Amino acid sequence: MPRAAEHHARAVQRLRLARDIGDAGTLRGALREPRLCEPAAKFLGELRDAESAPALLQLLGAADAGVRAAAAQALGEIGAAEATPALVALLEDPAARVRRSAASALAAAGEVGAADAIRAAAERDSRLRRRGYRRALRALETRGDPHTARPGG
């Protein structure tokens, strides 16, 4: 394994350890490192660290689609209501991975008011990619909002 890849693997392993012991501060610090912000965002979401929401919101504008997707997913797991407008906007992201993560995040956060936006994103996307949107809509339906249910669908 090349030296840079070894260094990166060790750094991600340290982040995994930080997650395992609940050290959100170390993970929040890693959000400033371009090569580490994707796994750091993922781990912060797993910890449901609400203090990281402002930094994760900033990452929604990152150039890297993987970082945007991880930040969106983390915000959904945290349940950061302040992220809803930005997550809805990500339903139009050029990267399919980001669009699906945004839909999933909105569902995870219980944003039943976003059902129409998720449905519209599904209609715009290819048939092959609609499964993730349907999964998000089903998750919202289980929250009991009759506006999210769609007859026959």
Structure description:
The radius of gyration is 16 Å and the shape is globular. Helices cover 65% and strands 0% of the residues. It has one domain: Leucine-rich Repeat Variant. The chain is mostly helical and 153 residues long. The termini are far apart. It is built from 9 helices and no strands. The model is unreliable at 145-153 (pLDDT under 50).
CATH T-level fold name: Leucine-rich Repeat Variant
Helix proportion: 55-70%
CATH-defined superfamily:
Leucine-rich Repeat Variant
Q: What is the CATH C-level name? A: Mainly Alpha
Number of domains: 1
Q: Which terms summarize this structure?
A:
153 residues; mainly alpha; Leucine-rich Repeat Variant; globular; disordered C terminus
What is this structure, in a nutshell?
The protein is mostly helical and 153 residues long.
Topology summary:
Elements: H1 3-20, H2 24-30, H3 37-47, H4 53-59, H5 65-78, H6 84-90, H7 96-108, H8 115-124, H9 130-141
Helix pairs in contact: 1-3, 2-3, 3-5, 4-5, 5-7, 6-7, 7-9, 8-9
